[in-house]
Amino acid sequence: MTNEELTAVYNPVPLGICVLNRQKHIVFVNKGFRELLNDKRKQVEGWPLEKLFPVFEQSYFKQRLEQVFNENVPLFLSSGLHGVEVAQGLGKKDAYCEVSLAPLIKRDDHYAEQVVLTVEEVTSTVKQIKQQKNLLKCLRRQLKESEAVKQIMEGVQLELQEANAAKDKLFSIIGHDLKTPFSALVAISDLLMNNSHKDTDGKERRRLYEAIWLTATQGIEFVTNLLNWAQSQSNSITALPCHFDLDKLLSELQAFYRLSMQKKSISMRLTYNTSNSRVFADMDMIKVVLQNLLSNAIKFSRNTQLIEIELVAENGNRTRILVKDKGLGMPAHILKSIMRKKRVKPGLGANMEKGTGIGLSVCHEFLEANNSSLLIESIPGKGSTFSFSLANSAKGFHSQSITDVSEHPN
């Protein structure tokens, strides 16, 4: 794959990705990977892999890396065993990362000419697990101090350990065994679709490629929403606000959903009724909110329709973001359930696309963490408008109470 192809495929992926050649040298890093590096290591193209991650100097990992290239066997380094070593390779202190490697196989090839290495920082997750372990230690001390309730507490402790073990296993499977392969599948199938027109009789092949892409995209949406929802339910959600440019974020999302819109011949228009597109909020949370709203707008829009994103200046040093579609709309009872933050049965999109049913719940939680709330206007058969407002400054963020009206009558 050329550098231009790698850039087009992997820059939109919200993970750190670098590509290795058969000499185990880094030939490409995406935007997410470069953001993980400290300032002294911004240019790593051409480096041997072991220079960045010394763990690959060990004979075992050298052998496993050969298996990735020659036997198409993926490799996964867990945060518990090697997470600190990986983070140190990136120039990070007191951080944990997880790494997976997957072969990048061209059509009709039997072995990989290149390998995709994916890095994800999981420091907050590891710290949460450590906090849970510390909680278990405290419970043990309390058991020793109270002999009268020892047997009862031992039963509670066992249940807590089993619950934590099950939860950790679930999050491990969902967060890494599913998300990383799905990300690679989306990127590769996107590339295959873009090249399929070169094959004169490739109509059936392209249909299969599109099915692969759609399945992977829906899988990523489900995994991401499930992880975000689980985080909000565990009371561990904390906003880390900063200044960022909505215009840049929206342009990135527009590019990310380009293929989804092309499949339905949908167009997207950005309208700015404000001179200031900079806001102060948790950028990652707002990105998740906008991803869910745009995904829904595409899903419930009919072919050839228009989706409009509008930024409007509001009094009180705030900016309102509106996502409008002219699609299927929602009946009043569904709208009422959503605004009461109840999980609703996922509806089918205009082209029978499936949803998860938890995306808007995540939006509610993340907007509340940023001192905002979701307003919805929807008319069956005529479309929906989702909107929320964000502070333009730190002063506005900390002084603002949630005053948005949460529901608009049909």
TrEMBL record:
GO terms for biological process: osmosensory signaling via phosphorelay pathway. One of its GO terms (cellular component) is membrane. It holds the Pfam family PAS_9. Its EC number is 2.7.13.3. InterPro entries: BphY/WalK/GraS-like, HATPase_C_sf, HATPase_dom, His_kinase_dom, HisK_dim/P_dom, HisK_dim/P_sf, PAS, PAS-like_dom_sf. It is an enzyme of class 2 (transferase). This is histidine kinase. It comes from Carboxylicivirga sediminis.
